[in-house]
Amino acid sequence: MFDSATDEYNNGFRHDHKTFGAMIYRLVSVNQFRPAEGMLERMKQEDCEVTEDIFLTICRGYGRVHRPLDAIRVFHKMEKFQLRPTQKSYLTIFDILVEENYVKRAIGFYKEMREKGIPPSVVSLNILIKALCKNKETVESAFQIFREMPNRGCQPDSYTYGTLINGLCKLGKISQAKELLDEMEEKGLSPSVVSYTSLIHGLCQSNNLDEAIELLEEMIRNGIEPNVFTYSSLMDGLCKGGQSSQAMELLEVMVRRRHSPNMVTYSTLIDGLCKEGKHREAVEILDRMRLQG
């Protein structure tokens, strides 16, 4: 159909970067990457303008299907098309590498980005902090960058704090995470549901269940609506702490607030109830799960 559009017009109709871009977007959306890259070559042959956004469509597609090295390969093809990648392109690839846990490669890419004259920004430093928070050995470096951000003209935002809180909780550094939550609130920044959920999960993992419940109540008071992951994390902590009855009560709260329990929520409750010998309640939850579908 794409080719027939040209064939049907004898008056000189030619595809431009918009029609090529739309076709490439469609191909990438159904994971047809080779034909999509073939379209790039065809654009070059037909002397059609190839834009940075068209390249990034393919790069993001590769990132979505967990093929970061292909994303980098396509990124480097830009130069063959006389395109100079901008900050947007560098940040896109940098974020893909971090998301896919190619941390060393990501940090090397960040250095390359800086050498190319791309200035630091809140976005780039947030991604770098996220990369450094993935390993216990580099968390201190993440904090150092965080503290130096204002000196670089980059004020930490809610995402910066949330990234650090999430990273610290995953590494069991709950006290530091709590201090950061307090600090961001002092600065007038609103913690996200993700930040609260990370900290609630961390508190449950360290068996600080009372604090986790208090934090849930605090987030609701602050107008931050818990999600299914927030409730499931707290239920998991309660069940592991031998408090499955309280977890059942939390399930009712969750439903009243119009959140649908998922498979993890139900499995957590059933497991906790069975471990406490509450088999009748466990069967009731199983029936409820089946009814929900």
TrEMBL record:
Q: Cellular component per GO?
A: mitochondrion
Does the record's keyword annotation contain Repeat?
yes
Annotated organism of origin:
Trifolium pratense
Which UniProt keywords are listed?
Answer: Repeat
Query: Repeat PPR: residue ranges?
Result: 51-85, 86-120, 121-156, 157-191, 192-226, 227-261, 262-293
The keyword Metal-binding belongs to this UniProt entry's keyword annotation: no
Q: Which InterPro entries match?
A: Mito_RNA_Proc_CCM1, PPR_rpt, TPR-like_helical_dom_sf
Q: Which PANTHER family match?
A: MITOCHONDRIAL GROUP I INTRON SPLICING FACTOR CCM1-RELATED, PENTATRICOPEPTIDE REPEAT-CONTAINING PROTEIN PET309, MITOCHONDRIAL
Designated name of the protein: Pentatricopeptide repeat-containing protein at5g46100-like protein
Q: Which residues form a coiled coil?
A: none
The Gene Ontology biological process terms listed for this entry are: mitochondrion organization; RNA processing
Family stated for the protein in its record: Belongs to the PPR family. P subfamily.
- Spell out the molecular function terms from Gene Ontology: mRNA binding
